[in-house]
Each structure stands twice: as C-alpha cells, then as structure tokens.
C-alpha cells in the first residue's frame, strides 16, 4: 500500500512517495521504482510529468492505491427538504467556529496590560515615557496592519497557539489532512503542505497563511474555468 511522507530537515522540503515493500512481490518493486520516479519529477518541479506517471498506472498493479477512487456525481443545488430527507444536518455544512486563538489573544492582551502596570510600578516611569511607549506600540501595530495586512501579528499569535494549545494544533492538522485526503481520492495529486504560519513563511515567504496544502492542480483549474466541476461522493 502506498503512503505519502512529508520530508523535512536539511533536505529541501518536498513530498516523498514511498511504498511498503512486499518480500518476493514484483508489484511492490515496480511500485517503488515508479514512485521514486514521481518523487524525482516533483523535486525537479515537473508536475505534469509526475502526474502523468501516476495517472498512467491508475488502477493498475504498481500504481497508487485509492488515487482518484472517489465516486463523483454531477454537481447541482439541493433544497433543504432534499437534504433533510437524506438525513443531512445543514448545520454540519457550515465552517466550524474555533475560538481558541481568540481566547489566546485576549489572554495576551490581559498579560500585556498587567505586565505594563507592573513595569510602571517597578521602574517608576513618568507619564511622558508611558505615552511614548504607547505611541511606539501603536506605530508598530499600524505598520503591520498597513504594510503586512496584519501578517506579523497573525504569525506571532499562530505560533503561540501551536506552542501552548494542543487543541488548536490538532485542529489545524485534521483540517489540512482533510484537504489532503479528499484531493488524493478525487485524483488531484498533493505535493506539499504547511501546518503553521512560521512554516508557510519559511517555505513560501507568505504571511497571513495559517496553514495550507498545495496540489498539482492545473487540470482541476481547467475544469473550474470551463464549469465542468463535479460533486464528490466518497464511498
């Protein structure tokens, strides 16, 4: 069975496709060779060649198991009555609300105010010094908002959230795993992902990105542009 592993460290980060070797099985050896070639094409940035290799063996011995195996149906709008008849709770289709970062942000604000008061009492700052310090913080906040669209603040908040909140960390992992799995089953080849804002900044130089999954998606974009996108049913 093929597995997908994200490699990090001294080697440039990329997806490395591996397969569990089955002793005495020629299929396992063939799959290993093909997946090593796919990994080589992805590392070179030739996504079309990598996708072509995967699709040529789709459903054949040595190919990726379950890739593109989701059953798809034509997309259409469903009424609320139809959803209810099929036992689908419409609330489950809404994006879940995560208040973890909001709680962390409020805690940081309270800690900042308490720390400021403690520093004021300890060092005996004058009113003028406190005013200058407040103006400095306001300037930094405005600079971040205008120049980076709040990206630096989001970076700090997301990093603290991943460090101190296991709930938030797990939620991000599960969210990106969902993108990864659905794309794989639909037949869109995943090629990388990030789980933190810091990771996105280091890999792509992107601010204001909490997490994300990248795909070899040029075929999907062509379908979107031509209006031929289908709904997907996983069975």
Describe the structure.
The structure is a single chain. By secondary structure, the protein is α+β, with helices and mostly antiparallel strands. The longest helix has 24 residues. The protein is built from 9 helices and 6 strands. A hairpin with a 6-residue loop joins β1 and β2. Among the domains are: 65 residues, no CATH class; 64 residues, no CATH class. The strands form 3 sheets. It has a two-stranded antiparallel ribbon.
List keywords for this structure.
single chain, elongated, 6 strands, 13% strand, disordered C terminus, two-stranded antiparallel ribbon, disordered N terminus, 235 residues, 9 helices, alpha+beta, Stress regulated protein
Question: Which helices and strands appear, and what pairs or packs with what?
Answer:
Blueprint: E1 2-7, E2 14-19, H1 26-44, H2 47-56, E3 71-74, H3 80-85, H4 100-123, H5 127-147, H6 151-164, H7 166-186, E4 189-194, H8 197-204, E5 212-216, H9 218-226, E6 230-233
Antiparallel strand pairs: 1-2, 3-6, 4-5
Helix pairs in contact: 1-2, 4-6
* Helix segment tally: 9
What is the structural class? alpha+beta
Q: Which consecutive residue ranges, at least 5 long each, have pLDDT under 50?
A: 1-24, 229-235
How are helices and strands ordered from N to C? EEHHEHHHHHEHEHE
Helix content: 55-70%
Tell me the strand order in the biggest sheet: 1-2
| Counted beta strands | 6
Radius of gyration: 24 Å
The shape, in one word, is elongated
Cα-to-Cα separation, first versus last residue: 19 Å
User: What oligomeric state is this?
Assistant: single chain
* Biggest beta sheet attributes: 2 strands, antiparallel
Mean pLDDT: 75
Beta content comes to 5-15%
